[in-house]
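User: Show me sequence and structure for the first protein, then do the same for the second.

Assistant: Starting with the first protein.
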Amino acid sequence: MDDEMVVSWITPAGNDPAPKMSVLYSTVPLSEATELMMQAGDITQYDFHDVNKTTGVMTNYTSGYIHHATLTGLETATKYYYAIQDSSCKERFFTTLPAVGTSEPGITFGVVGDVGQTSYSSLTYAGLLADESIKLVLNAGDMAYADCDQNRW
């Protein structure tokens, strides 16, 4: 839908049952809001089992709890502030796109791929986030490598 935004996050496995968490959001910073909107998240989890064909070592991995909350009824060209309820996550924000057919200028977006997981990866993202003209970052993939370290993936 054109008036929605999905917020995704991961919490550690082992806290059974999986924690029920929600996203709080508003058009003003949450600390200043007199009324907050709230959306509960769905939870999923996956297991990975594989045998390394070279070493014969078995890999067993269970992901953390993967949460997704769909924020609905969002207004166009509006800045929203959000945070995960009952967590130590800091407040973040996003701005919805302008309405289709408006005279507002197009959007500038960044595209990255094959960034890996190094200090240079962090610098790449920091540079994109520092440029306020960039409204969207599309990650074309390949953030992890086939090193059998599921925790890094």
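Switching to the second protein now.
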Amino acid sequence: MEPESPSSPPPQQSSPTTTETIFSDISGNVYKPEILEAYRLKIVQGFPDGTFRPQQEVTREEAISMIVDALNTVIPINVNEKPTRRALPYLDIKPSRWSAAKINWAQWNFSVLQAGNYTGNFRPTDPIKRSELIIFLSSAAENLDRKSTRLNS
């Protein structure tokens, strides 16, 4: 999930003693097992105040962060690798932004993210629309297929 400020590093959770203390706001949530598994796999981290905020909208940068982290559980990903093809950087993604490396990696590796929108912006703090999420996930699956094919060749 997104840290409190766009340029701060991703939040770090201290090591809780039980899964009950990871996030203070998921007790009784129907998706609690999945949230805890995503935390265990390091796909989600939550917020610095120890919450997960399951009712809060997910932003575009949070979605990309989770997708890249999920892919990394299947194939090794180095978000700091140099692009293998030219891509114009998004105008609204500064290198100091907490999600910059993952957004840049996704832009270089997910064909659908190459163009951004017509203004050259990614709009990281905008809530992600369902249609955008499907496009991001589809592109991630294509990338996974390409990379796993190369690894198995």
